[in-house]
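User: Hi! I'm a student and our assignment asks us to look at how structure tokens line up with a sequence. Could you show me two examples?

Assistant: Happy to help. In each example below, the sequence comes first and the structure tokens follow. Example one:
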Amino acid sequence: MNYRNIICEAISKASGLAENEIEALMETPPDKSLGDFAFPCFKLAKTFRKAPAMIAGELIDKIEKPGFVSQINAVGAYINFFVDRSVFAKDIIEKIMEEGTDYGRSDRGRGKTIVLDYSSINIAKPFHIGHLLTTVIGNSLYRIFSFLGYTCVGVNHLGDWGTQFGKLISAYKRWGNRELIEEGGIKELLNIYVRFHKEAETHPELEDEARAYFKAIEDGDEEALALFHWFKDVTLKDISKIYDLLGVKFDSYAGESFYNDKMQPVIDELREKGLLEESDGAMVVNLDDEGLPPCLILKRDGTTLYATRDLAAAFYRKKTYDFDKCLYVVAYQQNLHFKQLFTVIKKMGYDWADDMVHVNFGMVSMADGAMSTREGRVVFLEEVLQKAIEKTRSIIEEKNPGMEDKDTVSRQIGVGAVIFSALYAGRIKDMVFDYDRVLNFDGETAPYVQYCHTRCRSLLQRAEGRYDAVAPDWSVFTEDEAFDVVSRLSDFPELIEKASLRYEPSLITHYVTELAQAFNKYYYDFRIIDDDMNKTAARLKMTLAVADTIKTGLWLLGIETPTKM
């Protein structure tokens, strides 16, 4: 039962306003003494040609009070609704008891497909901390939309084309060792890549050699192609370990090279529709009328660019998946690129360009400056995850040496801490990577939320089912601290919807933190299990509801929940 919607419906009937207009204005008072829901009448003054306070006073006489509402009053321009806390708690908790970890799930997206382009690592380059945000934001959005009934297609648009492969072939032929690369993976490829750039500073002819090797790949040279595919295999083998640690999976690894034979039809269509123009020998789509720089399609020498490949990818995805939305989880540095991409498709006459969304996010940098693959200044994501796991293991050894399955719990907590830290701030904010901050398990962190979950499970285990058949005394939820927990539980379905509409997993990160804080406060102020069987039964049902909701919330973020800590 959605209490907010029912109240909006009652106000709609009394005022004649549309429910969606009312929903947009509804508030939750920060002080519970002012009510549980509030409707401000300020914006109605122009419509009704009356003072907001007068409108509020007249409307409360017309509103038919829903059964769960104990009181309605008008204070100034606000109409305040007070719910019957016992009825409210019973409805919410019983709903969660019935649905378990499916609480908040919906079929809003049934029959609709969302394509999500995220992570998009570069072949033969390290999976570093800079890839963390796109990977965990994309994975969380994949889970959120799947939870809401959408068919999701996760695409890892691999950076598997370009002159860097010519550089790698040149470097490998000069300084490479196949056995070392097979054993060392991406790190060994990075070593020879960095060496290439250092050597090229004094031997610029190496750049010409690299371009020649890449041309050999494009022309299908057998040896060059074999090395290209080997570099790709080595990379995918290495990064699969990291994806496994993060719990991230993809439905497609179609990267740049996949679209080599799919660009020409798009270029031909642009030419046929009169959209291609020559500019200094290059071919562009003029976007002056949209206030954007021209979109470069072909260089002077006829070679293609990112935009050409992304256009081909967009048409392929629409044809293959017939998406309702196509999300690109890419840093805000590419804002202009995606504006141009979507605008070109729109100018080609395809309205589905409106269904393409750039889900941008802030950049990740190190405390001492920007990362550089060419200079070898990177923080490997695998090292970050392993350090987090090791730190967790040392804490467990110190505080709970007898714990079973320490390896699993250490992984769940350590990896969860890294993911949570990346998703806690709003996605558009830049993230300065700092080991001490990321690996700090105190405060508003994943371990804090995970520990609340294990606390709930421990309480339920202690109860040993003795209260399952006992009639709950719902009056315990008239207490402010208990009602605060229930109120937060009731917000979860709407919160997931908001996170999906804003493409913002941080809303869920903050939600599970605040739910854990509310429950922990109640836990410290009141006994969950006491001599009153009926009140204990009610509190334990709330405890189970909290545990299941936290578990679902963390899962939506891509974080596991240990049963013991």
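Example two works the same way, sequence first and then tokens:
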Amino acid sequence: MKKPSAKTILLIANGDLRQSANEATWAFQKAMEKQLTSAVAKLGYKLVRAHPYKAKLKHGFIGSQKEGMEIFAGIDPQTPLIVAEAVWQYSHHILHGLISHQAPILTVANWSGSAPGLVGMLNLNGSLTKAGVNYSTLWSRDFTDDFFLGNLATWLKSGVIKHPVTHVKPLGRCTVPAKAKTIAKKVAADLRLRKSIMGIFDEGCMGMYNAIIPDELLFSCGVYKERLSQSALYYGATQVSDAEGNAVFNWLKAKGMKFHFGTDPENELTKEQVLWQCKTYVAALRIADEFGCETIGIQYQQGLKDLLPASDLVEGILNNSDRPPVKNAAGKVIRAGEPMTHFNEVDECAGLDGLLTNRVHKLLGQPVENTLHDLRWGDTDQSGTTKDYVWVFLISGSAPPEHHVNGYAGTDSMRQPKMYFRLGGGTVRGIAKPGEIIWSRIFVEGGKLKMDLGRAKAISLPAAETERRWKETTEQWPIMHAVTYGVTRDQLMARHKANHIQVAYAKSAAAADLALYTKAALAAELGIQVSLCGTKANGSKF
């Protein structure tokens, strides 16, 4: 192993497991690396790729854990390293090498909706945090701004970047309302006594090490995993009758949900694909009921994608109180009038959050529907409707219709991109309705469960601006225009330890504040280290 010169910085580019995704997104990565190389050169250093472009595969990403180990075996552990991400990446491809790397590590993402490097980098950051790896992080639109260059210069000289996180306040320094404490104690006592089962349809989706909660950390929360198999879910779907599948589809159609059907199953959504999704919905509910699960998570992109259309329709509808009724073997409707809380991509941190949210909101009389979103991107409003910075929260396929403008009538279904889902399947797409929301994230750090919570609002934007944002990201997926209270773009990026962010609505600003305090108090009762971020809607501190 030859040691690079003192002014050399190594670069690695982690990618997807799927060749189709890596090939299709390479152009974004190539453009980013060119800009990043120029920025490093301006500061007197040389950025060198630690692994080559693969001409036969038409990309230069690390495409597997095996490949990543081979590459890191040839990397000098004493040379500073930049992980440059313009796309989604599977963190486990490189986590092993970053854990053993001895020199400073910098994760960098491009600020783009089209190339989801932000999402990939945040997942890697959360995984590194959980693994106890020291790293610094940066982001930029074109790598020429003062924020980026100033911080990059600091890292090149010292190996460390410290972003200010003055918006974060430990719950112990906040005044929690008595009502919130009372409800939190009640829910915590019930969880300790009766406990709860979290159904896991195959663990570890798309390299998301940060999305796996060690069992022993869940025990103090009264939550225990039931490890289920996607093969059982597939088999269960094959046992659902055509009549039952059609009943679910007809129920959705009667509610006003629209399906964009075509005739080419290779490239368009077809009714047959949706009927398979409807059968999978029935099977998921019956398996959850059989094992007594309060929450379930389906792995989503791996495994099932080779057997069935995408599980999006299943996931979005499960998270809605008003959903097609399904009976169990005893003839009883499963969780009638309630969601079967589902956590997309088997993100167990989102699953625990969803469980706590559902219980708290139910007792407070607030909407119980909640979901994760990708923290996909953000931009200023080009329509001039608001001066606030508006985030694009965009879940990768489905959100509960109750979150959408006009509910089911404002919800449509488009075919998932072929690049990800060969067998198709419809999404549960809509525009999030305006209203007060609570955002949150549970993560693992230092061997402990932690939770950040904050307040925000979903806003309406003109149709043209919404379409612009959809076109910049993924138009098949549901979108939320979110404005965070008291948390800037860079503050959220500096602190957030995940690619996902959990959201739930409340009926008013005051109700949302109480729901936030109650969930925070509940998490603390269960031994989770809690912080409140930003401000309330009126700008006052927590």
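Here is something you could point out in your write-up. The chain has two domains: 8-158, 172-533.
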